[in-house]
Every structure is written in structure tokens, then in C-alpha cells.
Predict the 3D structure of the following.
Amino acid sequence: MSVLEVSHITKTFGSKHVLSDVNLTFEEGKIYGLLGRNGAGKSTLLSIMTNRIFAGEGEVKIDSENVDDNDAKLGLMYLMSEVNLFADGWKLKQIIKDSESFYGSFNHELADRLVTEFGLDINQKFGKLSTGYNSIFKLILALCLPVK
């Protein structure tokens, strides 16, 4: 059973203290939510946990191994944000193909099943997706990427 530990995370941007001595433990098989007002540091914490930005102090570990520059442990996490990394004119099927090239593999069987279950047309352009389908598509990508 994997455990993700966040220990004594502190982060400042200039003179603004965003996170101060944050300690959390996430256990496998459970669902957690981060709640807080805008600017509370939720996205900053998630970015630190996935090594997108670095904490001023503290550490993040999975199964007692630090995630900093640890591809094996970082490969166990996928952070999806509201920021779109795909051009509006790209077709969904091309994004899927490119994802496989970038990550080395892709579970096409699962993707096909999820696309069908959600009624997603992969011949449409990314920029034409509603907000809900945009999220669904990005979640499908995340679920179909390899776990390292």
C-alpha cells in the first residue's frame, strides 16, 4: 500500500507566505479533497507534491522515498490543471497519439471504453469541447497513461 507524505512544506513568493509548515498523509485507496479560498495555496501545494515547483522547506515522499527528481515516484502522480496544454485546433485523436509518443505507452483499450461511455467524439477539435468534456478528456488521458 503506497503512502504519500507531505512534511513541513513551506513556500513563499517574495514576501508572501503561501504555505507554512504543511503536514499531510495520503493513503492509497482513499479519496481526498483540498478545500480553501482562492489564494490559500491549494494549487501551490499540488505543484510542490508533483515536483512542478519546489518548496522553500520540507519534503514530499512516496513510500518513504523523496519525490524530488525521482522519476519512478513522480510517474505515480498526474496533476491535471485548468491550464490547457493543447492547441484548440488539435483533434482529440491526435492528442491521444501524441500522448503515447511522449509517455512511451498508452492504454488504448481503456481510452476507447471511456470515450464510448462518455460519448466523446475524438474526431472533434480540443477547442470545441465544453468545460465538462474538456475535463473528461484530460482525465481519460491521465487514466490511460502508464504507471511507472
